[in-house]
Design a protein that fits this description.
Layout: E1 9-13, E2 16-18, H1 19-26, H2 30-39, E3 49-51, H3 52-61, E4 64-68, E5 91-92, E6 96-101, H4 107-115, E7 132-140, E8 143-151, H5 156-163, E9 171-177, H6 184-195, E10 200-205, H7 214-223, E11 237-239, H8 248-261, E12 265-266, E13 273-282, E14 286-295, E15 298-299, E16 303-306, E17 309-317, E18 323-324, E19 326-327, E20 332-338, E21 347-351, H9 354-378, H10 383-391, E22 397-404, H11 410-418, E23 426-434, H12 439-448, E24 450-455, H13 461-470, E25 474-477, H14 480-491, E26 499-515, E27 519-532, E28 536-541, E29 544-557, E30 560-561, E31 564-566, E32 570-575, E33 586-594
Parallel strand pairs: 1-4, 6-8, 6-9, 9-10, 10-11, 22-23, 22-24, 24-25
Antiparallel strand pairs: 2-3, 5-12, 7-8, 13-14, 13-21, 14-20, 15-19, 16-17, 16-21, 17-18, 17-20, 26-27, 26-33, 27-31, 27-32, 28-29, 28-33, 29-30, 29-32
Helix pairs in contact: 1-2, 2-3, 5-12, 10-14, 11-14, 12-13
């Protein structure tokens, strides 16, 4: 049976936890915690999550001295701690390359030509249906080398991994069709690569077609700040044809050259660490995860933590389904043996034993809970919060994504916004394009901390859901100067948020208590909803409004001051500068909510 601690014992409480977890932490019965919360006007179930302030209130009520626990960060955990390797132990590793570009420009066909297999023919509509990771070996000019390719459907996986803080890609190959030129998704891919600070190599495909125009493609790329070496820039561009295999070796040579310039190295003689490329639940085999080993060597039998889950590597397969015993740096492998399905972008690490692996997994659960609580407290980057974050030193750039109905609106909006940059904040237009706000736009905004300007366009329903869940700020405009005015006002800290009053509860006055000559306590009963210390009040007598915009001076349950009282409970209310109550009066409680 749980024993209650002595009075006034100090206790550390995390930012978010369930009522049951709080009871275990305090070593009291769950019922005591629930009763304490109820006495303070809060109705909570045993599995309900509560924040630190609520938990601290219950802890104090039970005789403890609470302190908020130091929030663990990803970097303080085993999976996120920086890797410290002696430079003498580092050896060159294969580069990890992501293929990006517009749909149907030949990404999979190019990879097919590189691998000398037939991936594209078996896929519906010629569009990549999965995220694959493949490693090729080549011998060229007497030199043997390896390159790892991530084949993504567009760049969703690329941004999904970045959203989770994982940087899996060393080089991005931008595929542009010679006959079609730069398209909207090409521009998106460029902006995603730039935001991730990943070097670009341009592969101009379909050069064997009669209407191929390489100069036009290079000129269009220059318009989006991708200047190829031939035009005096620093971005390599290679003309290739997946059908005739023209330029394939040249492209691989360029990739290896870029990799050499960046001196990609890792230590193979240590416990493996890396990132999840994809994961799924297989009905026969259970959780299956494709991992990219970034350092160390992964072995069959290793105890492993992958995000918030753990297990032991029961088997490893390469991209062709062949069993493997060991996987070194930059090697993609499919593993079995996890307790559940992780997410793309989750980090993994080999642990000394299964007990440690489980402890590391629990560490990740805590980090995510704290992260969710902190995000809920801090809130997303919006124009309204910008000035506060600038003064706190947490924001130096205001990243903006612009979507318009016509091409002609892009340049005026982009140039007008970028001119607003000042000594404290630089306004950067990360991506600008035409069409409705899409999932890709929200993905980029989430990973880059950007706001989205929707100019005469709407938001796709799925993108709206994503934005709501991720806290991405989407602003709608139809006049250019309003865009500029809002951003300028935000930079000056002058943007006034708009609020509306929402009815939270109705309370009936049933009895009056006088304290001294001036103060009247309205003994009341909450008929519906709730009333809180922050409520804005309207007092009604029949159809007559006696008070509007009133503020609560005191709110009590029994003899205790409380923060809120729910429907079905009695309470005592005192109102600032108002005492003219009569039994039967109705008090309406309102909350101020910001209008999006």
């Amino acid at each position: 049976m749980l024993q209650r601690r002595p009075e006034n014992v100090e206790v550390e409480i995390p930012g978010r936890l369930t009522v049951k977890e709080l009871a275990e932490l305090l070593r009291v019965q769950s019922g005591e915690v629930i009763r304490s919360l109820l006495n303070n006007g809060m109705l909570a179930t045993i599995n309900q999550q509560i924040d630190y302030d609520t938990a601290a209130l219950a802890a104090m009520d039970l005789g403890f001295k609470p302190h908020e626990a130091q929030a663990p960060s990803m970097e303080s955990t085993a999976l996120g701690a920086p890797i410290a390797d002696d430079p003498a132990n580092l050896v060159p590793r294969p580069p990890v390359v992501t293929i990006m570009g517009h749909v149907d420009h030949g990404k999979t066909s190019l990879l097919d030509a590189i691998r000398h297999t037939s991936v594209a023919t078996g896929e519906a509509g010629g569009i990549t249906q999965h995220i694959g990771a493949y490693q090729i070996e080549r011998t060229h000019n007497g030199k043997r080398s390896r390159i790892t390719f991530l084949d993504t459907p567009g760049h969703e996986a690329f941004t999904a991994m970045r959203a989770r803080g994982a940087q899996a890609t060393d080089i991005a190959v931008l595929v542009v069709a010679a006959d079609d030129g730069v398209q909207p998704q090409t521009i998106e891919a460029i902006n995603h690569a730039k935001a991730a600070n990943v070097p670009l190599v341009v592969a101009i495909t379909k050069v064997d077609l009669p209407d191929a125009n390489l100069d036009r493609v290079k000129s269009q790329l220059a318009e989006h700040e991708v200047v190829v070496e031939e035009y005096g820039g620093d971005t390599p561009a290679v003309a290739v044809s997946a059908r005739t295999k023209t330029g394939i070796d040249d492209l691989l040579d360029v990739i290896e050259l870029v990799a050499e310039l960046h001196e990609l190295k890792a230590n193979p003689n240590r416990e493996a660490r890396g990132v999840v490329i994809e994961a799924r639940l297989d009905r026969q085999r259970g959780p299956v995860a494709t991992l990219l080993v970034q350092t160390g060597t992964l072995n069959v039998g290793d105890a492993i933590t992958v995000g918030p889950y753990s297990g032991r590597v029961r088997s490893m397969l390469d991209e062709n389904g062949k069993p493997m015993r060991h996987a070194g740096p930059s090697t993609p492998v499919e593993i079995l043996g996890l307790s559940d399905v992780p997410q793309a972008g989750d980090r993994f690490a080999v642990a000394p034993d299964e007990k440690t692996a489980r402890a590391w997994a629990q560490e990740q659960v805590t980090v995510r809970q704290v992260g969710a609580g902190a995000e809920a407290t801090r809130g997303p980057l919006t124009l309204e919060s910008l000035q506060t974050m600038v003064q706190a030193g947490t924001v130096k750039d205001l990243n903006v994504i612009v979507k318009t109905d016509v091409q002609g609106s892009i340049e005026p909006i982009k140039s007008s916004l970028e001119k607003l940059s000042n000594d404290e904040v630089r306004v950067r237009v990360l991506h600008a394009g035409t069409g409705n706000v899409s999932d890709n736009d929200v993905n980029l905004a989430q990973t880059s901390g950007a706001i989205i300007v929707a100019f005469n366009v709407r938001v796709e329903p799925s993108a709206r859901r994503m934005a709501d869940n991720a806290g991405v700020d989407i602003r709608h405009y139809s006049v250019i100067y309003e865009v500029v005015e809002d951003v300028e006002a935000a930079l000056r800290g002058m943007l006034e948020p708009k609020y509306q009053e929402v009815l939270e509860g109705r309370v009936e006055v049933r009895q009056l208590f006088r304290i001294g000559r001036t103060t009247v306590i309205a003994g009341s009963f909450v008929l519906e909803g709730r009333i809180t210390r922050q409520s804005i009040l309207k007092v009604l007598r029949g159809n007559r409004v006696l008070l509007e915009g009133g503020r609560i001076a005191g709110l009590k349950r029994m003899k205790d001051d409380v923060r809120e009282v729910q429907a079905g409970y009695e309470c005592g209310i005192t109102v600032e500068d108002f005492n003219d109550f009569q039994p039967g009066d109705i008090i309406e409680a309102y909350a101020r909510e910001r209008v999006e």
